[in-house]
Amino acid sequence: MVQLTLPKNSVIGKGKTWPKPDGAKKTKAFRVYRYSPEQGSNPRWDTYHVDTSKCGPMVLDVLLYIKNKIDPTLAFRRSCREGVCGSCAMNIGGHNSIACTKGWDEVAGRTITIAPLPSLPVVRDLIPDLTNFYAQHAYVQPFLKTDTPAPEREWKQTPEDREQLDGLYECILCACCSTSCPSYWWNGDKYLGPAALLQAYRWLIDSRDEATGERLDDLEDPFKLYRCHTIMNCAQVCPKGLNPAKAIANVKHMMVERVV
Amino acid sequence: MSTDTHKVRGLGASGAGTSDYIRLRVTAIALLFLVPWFLYSIVDACRVGYAGAIDWVAQPINAILLILTLSAALYHMRLGLQTVIEDYISKSGSRQALMILNTFAVMALFTAAILSVLKIWMTASA
Fold first, then answer.
1. Closest alpha carbon within chain A to B25
2. Of these four, A102, A136, B1, B61, which has the most CB atoms within 10 Å of its CB?
3. pLDDT (0 to 100) of residue A219
4. Are residues A16 and A122 located together in one domain of the fold?
5. Does residue A101 lie within any of the structural domains?
6. A3 lies in a domain?
7. Does the structural domain B4-125 have CATH classification 1.20.1300.10?
8. Shared domain check, A124 and A136
9. Which residue is closest to B10 within chain A, CA to CA?
């Protein structure tokens, strides 16, 4: 049966409230999820006050401020700081997003909560375990598959065929979409999730690919594909403005097309 | 200690799902037409009392449409409940048992509903 409450060892306790920075005229409060497996205790909410005059505009700037000036033990992933790598995906103010392109002033509320991506095991603080997510991505074989011998130069594609990939190839695999999907929360072990299925569709409609039938065979399953109920959380949270739900609907249309 | 790839691949794709997806949508389209007719007719039939309602069911066109409505609605319900079971019941054994129960319950309802319509129609025709 689906679990509607957190397991005992995941219940989040009240953590430490750090003092306001000295001499700060304007501060903003952030409640950050903290968990260290080596401590053996439950996760907790720590509250930090950030001097907004000394901090950049993005949530990632806030996290760096906290790490550099208040609490160096805070752990989170980050790399490109410009919405390309997807490393800093997390739940900000109740919505999944990437911290580097999300302005903290865009988030409503006096105190902004920052938590790891929902439903995934937590490695530490804001770092989720993405191994299952990456294995799901690998399952859809996100590369060109052909039987025709490779041409001397590139595989050619018309501009119209290339346009078909717009809105799909831009995915940065941040996992915001999959971890915002209730179907993925309940059945994340079997349902491939919006991110992997968007990538599956990206290769299904690639005019150069010759394994469309095989790809559809690998997806035709009540759990791998048909757990999508068009809830649309995926499209709502995608930091790149993509629409995985539409891609999944198109995969279903392809499934129907080869039957009827 | 199995790998993540092993877990994700699992038993492989079952090759099922598309037929249920199509049937769910086809029954939904049928119900789009049948349910408004059914609601309008039931309200209309209720106005003329028990005997009038029996006469209404006894008309062949009404009996046929009633059987179609009940068939589409119950089949749609079976597929819908199957989706709910698949969504929320993670243990394989419980899931299979509930899916069988779902099918039996719908079959029982279907048989009883169709038999009732046929009985009224045949009694009235006799």
1. A256
2. A136
3. 98
4. yes
5. yes
6. no
7. yes
8. no
9. A190
Residue A223: its chain B contacts at CB < 8 A? 86
CA distances from B36 to B24, B39, B43 (A): 18, 5, 11
Size of interface A-B (CB pairs under 8 A): 76
Q: How far, CA to CA in Å, does A235 sit from each of A96, A201, A232, B105?
A: 11, 15, 5, 37
CB-CB contact of A48 with A33 (8 Å):
no
Beta-carbon separation of B21 and A139 below 8 A: no
SS3 A49: strand
E-state strands within A41-179: 44-51, 89-92, 95-98, 111-115, 122-124, 127-128
* Identity of the amino acid at B3: T
Select the residue from A139, A214, A250, A260 to test the B interface by mutation, using most B Cβ atoms within 10 A: A139
The answer for residues whose C-beta is within 8 angstroms of residue B112's C-beta and 6 or more apart is: none
Q: Residue A112 carries which DSSP code? A: E
ipTM of this predicted structure: 0.90
Residues in chain B within 8 Å Cβ distance of A131: 4
In tens, the pLDDT along A5-31 reads 888 888 999 999 999 999 899 999 999
- What is the per-residue pLDDT for A40? 87
CB contact under 8 A, B7 and A131: no
